[in-house]
Amino acid sequence: MSFWEYVGNRHAQLLTDTFQHASAVFQCMVLATVLGVLLGVATYRTEWAGNLATATTATILTVPSLALIGLLVPIVGLGVAPTVIALTLYGLLPVVRNAVVGLRGVDPSLIDAAKGIGMSRTARLLRVELPLAWPPILTGIRVSTQMLMGIAAIAAYASGPGLGNEIFRGIASLGSANALNQVLSGTLGIVVLALLFDAAYVVLGRLTISRGIRA
């Protein structure tokens, strides 16, 4: 059976796996973005705190994904839970680091001007600092998403959702007629999803970043 015949015969399952893969990555990136920005906001004003947040999330990223998921399984069980926890943790570093860098890079004169017109600290953060720090934060989100696309495939080891199931089934049945087709379909699906997500981020950047900031 050729690759395209295999895709035609298995299109329903492949579409389901693709949707689950995209959904898992998207939801985990939302969690990682919220947590990462909060960590950045909480630590960027103090040098040691920002460095500690960056170092801690960098340490998490050094743990092999298969090992982390394997450690989570006895605690939270198989399926979605270890997938969500692992992907969220792995997605933190680029977001935290870029949030800290972006917030520290805001022009102090703009902050002083906001103070001068009576803005509170919260208002300055929400209306001045975070909008100006958004471009590097968005870059961190894009980097995290590309990483998680590949890491999410490992979640199949713990019965997680996504295209990793196709890859693992193909590896487990090497030598059979459709083993290569299974691995190839899962891999190409992840590559296509990664490109689509990145294109969506480009559009999001054009919609949310003013021309003055981009310049």
UniProtKB/TrEMBL annotation:
<dbReference type="InterPro" id="IPR035906">
    <property type="entry name" value="MetI-like_sf"/>
</dbReference>
<feature type="transmembrane region" description="Helical">
    <location>
        <begin position="65"/>
        <end position="93"/>
    </location>
</feature>
<dbReference type="InterPro" id="IPR051204">
    <property type="entry name" value="ABC_transp_perm/SBD"/>
</dbReference>
<feature type="transmembrane region" description="Helical">
    <location>
        <begin position="24"/>
        <end position="44"/>
    </location>
</feature>
<protein>
    <submittedName>
        <fullName>ABC transporter permease</fullName>
    </submittedName>
</protein>
<dbReference type="Pfam" id="PF00528">
    <property type="entry name" value="BPD_transp_1"/>
</dbReference>
<comment type="similarity">
    <text>Belongs to the binding-protein-dependent transport system permease family.</text>
</comment>
<keyword id="KW-1133">Transmembrane helix</keyword>
<dbReference type="InterPro" id="IPR000515">
    <property type="entry name" value="MetI-like"/>
</dbReference>
<feature type="transmembrane region" description="Helical">
    <location>
        <begin position="183"/>
        <end position="204"/>
    </location>
</feature>
<keyword id="KW-0812">Transmembrane</keyword>
<keyword id="KW-0813">Transport</keyword>
<feature type="domain" description="ABC transmembrane type-1">
    <location>
        <begin position="18"/>
        <end position="201"/>
    </location>
</feature>
<keyword id="KW-0472">Membrane</keyword>
